[in-house]
């Protein structure tokens, strides 16, 4: 993790200057729309407020009262969705994912930014979940004994992996290309270090109603 004061010459998203023999292959950030829909569950929140508005409207005593109740409920829902979009945008603005030829660096956090270094040697496996907007999630399965607190990572963690957290590059644009780049980088590093290398198995982008599932790496 990085502190608030970084050495001069440190690039955005990194905990310090890169070593002379390390190079950046890719940098990016999660898409605002992807975070809003899939991390903050905007569709589910919208459906909840619509259902509440209909229920309140049906139990109102008069048409005018029903319209007023429905309108106020939908207004509250719209404000809530706007706040969720703001949080998603702030995450987009403050997050930097970096892939070098040696590691993955995740600079995350709105109020209290931290930087997580994930060397390729600590990655046991990876996966790709692609979506119809060409964005996708890339969760990283760490080797046994390595763990980052789930709350410290969220929303940049694979959902429901709490006991053994999986850092995740969330909703990255052009995810297929990023997954291929990451796979090549991990493979090249493994060949140099003569270690067993994890693989990323990309899947075709899923249809709108079934946005895909994670594929375990070999």
Would you write up a description of this structure?
By secondary structure, the protein is an alpha+beta fold. Helix content is 37%, strand content 18%. It has five helices and eight strands. The protein has helices at 32-39, 42-58, 63-94, 150-153, 175-193, and strands at residues 24-28, 96-100, 103-108, 114-119, 123-126, 129-130, 136-142, 168-172. It has a four-stranded antiparallel beta sheet. Strands 5, 6, 7 and 8 form a four-stranded antiparallel beta sheet that branches. It is elongated and about 75 Å long. Residues 206-218 have low confidence and may be disordered.
Rg calc: 21 Å
Strand content: 15-25%
Overall pLDDT score: 85
Give the helix tally: 5
Helix residue percentage: 25-40%
What is the tally of beta strands? Answer: 8
Q: Span from first to last CA?
A: 29 Å
Low-confidence stretches: 206-218
Put the structure in a nutshell:
The chain has helices spanning about 30-40, 40-60, 65-95, 150-155, 175-195; strands at about 25-30, 95-100, 105-110, 115-120, 125, 130, 135-140, 170. It has about 220 residues and is α+β, with helices and mostly antiparallel strands. α1 (about 30-40) packs across α3 (about 65-95) and α2 (about 40-60) packs antiparallel against α3 (about 65-95).
Describe the structure using short key phrases:
218 residues
Produce the secondary structure layout.
Blueprint: E1 24-28, H1 32-39, H2 42-58, H3 63-94, E2 96-100, E3 103-108, E4 114-119, E5 123-126, E6 129-130, E7 136-142, H4 150-153, E8 168-172, H5 175-193
Antiparallel strand pairs: 1-2, 2-3, 3-4, 5-7, 6-7, 7-8
């Amino acid at each position: 993790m990085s502190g608030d004061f970084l050495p001069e010459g440190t690039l955005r998203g990194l905990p310090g200057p890169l070593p002379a023999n390390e190079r950046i292959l890719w940098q990016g950030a999660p898409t605002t729309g992807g975070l809003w829909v899939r991390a903050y569950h905007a569709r589910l929140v919208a459906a909840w407020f619509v259902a509440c508005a209909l229920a309140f409207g049906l139990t109102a005593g008069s048409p005018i009262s029903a319209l007023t109740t429905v309108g106020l409920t939908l207004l509250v829902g719209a404000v809530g969705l706007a706040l969720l979009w703001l949080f998603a945008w702030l995450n987009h603005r403050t997050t930097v994912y970096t892939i070098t030829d040696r590691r993955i660096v995740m600079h995350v956090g709105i109020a209290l930014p931290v930087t997580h270094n994930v060397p390729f040697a600590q990655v046991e496996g990876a996966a790709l979940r692609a979506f119809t907007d060409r964005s996708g999630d890339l969760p990283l399965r760490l080797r046994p004994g390595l763990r980052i607190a789930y709350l410290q990572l969220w929303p940049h963690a694979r959902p429901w992996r709490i006991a053994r957290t999986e850092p995740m590059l969330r909703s990255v644009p052009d995810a297929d290309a990023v997954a291929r780049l990451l796979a090549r980088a991990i493979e090249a590093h493994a060949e140099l270090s003569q270690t067993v290398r994890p693989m990323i198995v990309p899947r075709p982008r899923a249809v709108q109603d079934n946005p895909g599932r994670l594929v375990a790496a070999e």
